[in-house]
Specification:
The complex is a heterodimer. Chain A is built from 17 helices and eight strands. Chain A is mainly alpha-helical. In chain B, strand 5 and strand 6 form a beta hairpin. In chain B, 45% of the residues are buried. Classes of the chains: A mainly alpha, B mainly alpha. The interface between A and B is medium-sized, with 31 and 29 residues.
Chain lengths: 398, 365
């Protein structure tokens, strides 16, 4: 399939063409400066940064809790995972314990978020090879899940849900009432997607052996998440460095064999099914109890305390005026985000604002490997490969 | 009154009236309505409602007003010419896309003749060859538009269009030679008439689909590629080269390209119906009425003609629907896969079809 390193045909001149930053198929805004020999890509240069918003710098000027809404905008197709990752990092800094019920709730909403991330990515992959219908079906399924999270957090997309020591609110009964029905609907849509794509020769021809990256190269590039697992490496932070209550839950880590677009598609598809099973287990196991454990350094006390006792009032005043004040130190906490290892590195100087908040975006590594995956392929493969790495501008460029 | 009838017997007047009725009354109308129906059918496939917002007061007509809204909008938009474009070619290119799709209709019969009145604009004896010649011209619209736009994406689209259409014409032609051989003519009206002959004592009509089943699939595939419809729409592949050769066009010229696409869908359907599905024929309906297994039902010629026109239009619309549903079901091929399919699979198949047809004709003659 690859045709690189061949001399140009008929002494033709190569054509330089800019794909993006404003291109209908570019997720977010990225520029690919490509050089084409006819229809074959001979050189690619990726230019990122069009969506840079200064996330990390803004964190330094915000109190710890003010950062949570910013994290919603990192990977904007799975915002709750970002909330969870950041809160886990801050809780590690404080040394806080989170109540079991809150941890289970985080797992449930986190997995819902992961499904919506994978639905978006797989749907977009379908769209990029021309199967627009599958994309819209998957977006419909994503909407079912967003309505669920809306039931809990009040927002479809920018949830701002976790707090230090728990969550902003508990999972309501209506959530559990709706959940099973929604999961069934999502499963039905996934089944439709299987029928539409997996048995379709055209789709298989378009994604098989396209954008291959070997296991060794993927590890060298620092791949994580579905992209790494597609190459056959069963590395999943939920198992490798368990956080929350993942070690109490039973799930499998799907892996691919070749590391092409097809494997990525399959891995994401299987992960969605695994996530659904995780959610079902978590719902069965979720204990009764509080959704939030108050710590006076970390976050506000209950309102009855504020109005009923002088200590509560002082705590409230201190947190509002100074922000959460973790002890001096630095932590790195990574979770398995939609795309892979989503890490937060926090440095605290003992004040109410992070001295440094650094995010390790999983898709930065994918984008840096993009030229290697693209060169030698046809123009028509650029966008499907680019879609298969699931680049999310908000997370990549922060 | 006599004078009017006299005028109506002049062939030129008849031709003009037929052109007006067929092209304006049917082709353009269906082409325009298809722009809306595609969106409606697509949204039905995709679990959406589809366009329904254009309104006059409270009347929306379930989106029917979008046809008018689109037309007015495209006419009122600025007709831009990109810097560095070849102005003359750029401005005339949409017409090259548009006219071939309409010209095809010159030889398509809508119903059987009543006496000396035919329902076909012109019945030239090289009908099929004419269809070929004209559909091949369609490539100029795309190539000139893409070339003159001074845009690399448009150029890529133009190159893809030209190579795709040229490659697919080869086996398209070969797949039809079987039809020539079976019916022994290239005159379209004769081919349609001969499809009203029967096997097994008038049981099974000799439609193209039954006499040349493989050729039908080859021909329909090739025609999809000629009309640049999914899965052969890389010339406009919106995820890679945005809109391909008509990327730079705006306003009325853009809608000329769009309308040309829909008119060519109707044309493709009509040609397929004419050659493989009996054209206007209804099985067992003869000029004097139905005849089947000894039973018969006499009908006046006007009713027969109306039934035939209805059958032709219905069959054509079914194929329009099929082409649109295919688009929203299948992904698109990559460019090299299109070429592989054309040259390595379709071409040998159409040649094999030719040989088998020849052998069968030789043995049964």
């Amino acid at each position: 399939m690859k045709r690189s390193n061949l001399p140009l045909e008929f002494g033709a001149e190569p054509m330089d063409i800019e794909i993006g930053p404003s291109h209908p198929a570019m997720h977010g805004i990225t520029r690919l400066s490509t050089r084409l020999d006819g229809e074959v890509v001979t050189a690619v240069e990726v230019e990122i940064g069009y969506l840079h918003r200064g996330f990390e710098k803004e964190c330094e000027n915000s109190t710890y809790v003010q950062v949570i809404p910013y994290t919603d905008r990192l990977n904007y197709v799975s915002p709750i995972l970002n909330n969870i990752g950041y809160s886990l990092a801050v809780e590690k800094l404080f040394g806080l314990d989170v109540p079991k019920r809150a941890q289970y709730a985080r797992v449930i909403l986190g997995e819902l978020s992961r499904i919506s991330d994978h639905l978006t990515c797989n749907g977009a992959m379908g769209m990029e090879v021309g199967a627009m219908t599958v994309f819209l079906w998957y977006v419909k399924a994503r909407e079912y899940l967003w309505e669920l999270t809306e039931e809990v957090t009040g927002a479809r997309l920018t949830h701002n849900w976790t707090r230090f020591g728990g969550n902003a609110n508990d999972l309501p009964d209506t959530f559990f009432d709706m959940l099973e029905e929604r999961l069934k609907k999502v499963e039905a849509v996934l089944e439709e997607g299987v029928k539409m794509l997996f048995k379709n020769k055209i789709f298989l021809d378009r994604v098989k052996d396209v954008g291959v990256l070997s296991r060794e190269r993927a590890i060298e590039y620092g791949f994580t998440g579905p992209m790494l697992r597609a190459t056959g490496e069963p590395y999943d932070l939920r198992r490798a460095e368990p956080y929350l209550v993942y070690n109490e839950l039973d799930f499998e880590i799907p892996v691919g064999t070749v590391g092409d677009s097809y494997d990525r598609f399959l891995v994401r598809h299987e992960e969605m099914l695994q996530s659904i099973s995780i959610i079902r287990q978590a719902v069965a196991k979720i204990p009764k109890g509080g959704h939030y454990q108050h710590d006076r350094r970390a976050w506000l006390p209950d309102k009855t305390e504020v109005y009923g006792s002088i200590e509560g009032l002082i705590d409230h005043f201190k947190v509002i005026m100074e922000g959460s004040t973790p002890p001096k130190g630095e932590v790195y906490q990574a979770i398995e985000g939609g795309n892979g290892e989503l890490g937060f590195y926090l440095v605290s100087d003992g004040t109410g604002k992070p001295y440094k908040c650094r995010v390790r975006p999983p898709c930065f590594n994918f984008v840096s490997a993009l030229p290697e995956m693209l060169i030698g392929h046809y123009v028509g493969d650029i966008v499907p490969i680019y879609g298969s790495i699931n680049m999310i501008g908000g997370e990549l460029e922060r | 009154m006599d004078m009017i009838l006299d005028i109506l017997t002049i062939p030129l007047v008849q031709a003009v009236i037929k052109i007006l009725v067929f092209v304006l009354g049917f082709v353009m109308a269906v082409g325009t309505v298809l722009t809306l129906m595609e969106r409606k059918w697509m949204s039905a496939v995709q679990d959406r409602i589809g366009p329904n917002r254009a309104n006059i007061g409270k009347f929306t007509g379930h989106g029917a007003l979008h046809i008018a809204a689109d037309g007015v909008k495209s006419l009122l938009k600025e007709d831009t010419v990109p810097a560095g474009a070849d102005r003359f070619l750029y401005l005339i290119a949409p017409l090259f896309s548009y006219f071939p799709a309409i010209l095809v209709w010159a030889v398509i019969p809508f119903a059987g003749p009543i006496g000396s009145v035919t329902f076909q604009i012109t019945d030239i004896n090289t009908g099929l060859v004419f269809i070929f010649a004209v559909t091949s011209l369609g490539v100029y619209g795309a190539v000139l538009g893409g070339y003159a736009s001074n845009n690399k994406y448009a150029l890529l689209g133009a190159i893809r269009t030209s190579s795709q259409m040229l490659s697919y014409e080869v086996f398209l032609g070969l797949s039809l030679i079987g039809i020539f051989m079976v019916y022994g003519t290239v005159q379209v009206s004769k081919i349609v008439e001969l499809q009203n002959t029967y096997w097994f004592d008038g049981l099974i009509p000799k439609w193209g689909i039954f006499t040349q089943p493989l050729a039908f699939f080859l021909f329909f595939t090739g025609m999809l590629a000629e009309a640049k419809r999914q899965p052969f729409d890389q010339p406009e592949g919106e995820s890679e080269i945005i809109a391909g050769y008509y990327l730079e066009y705006s306003g009325a010229r853009f809608s000329a390209y769009m309308l040309a696409e829909y008119v060519s869908i109707v044309a493709v359907s009509a040609i397929t119906v004419t050659l493989f599905f009996g054209g206007y024929q209804i099985p067992w309906l003869f000029p004097d009425g139905f005849h089947l297994l000894g039973y018969s039902l006499a009908l006046p010629p006007v009713v027969v003609a109306l039934l035939q026109a209805g059958s032709f239009i219905t069959k054509t619309l079914i194929f329009c629907w099929l082409i649109i549903i295919i688009r929203w079901t299948l992904p698109r091929f990559r460019f090299d896969q299109t070429m592989d399919l054309g040259w390595k699979k379709m071409l040998p198949l159409s040649m094999a079809n030719l040989v088998v047809t020849a052998l069968v004709l030789l043995l049964t003659a």
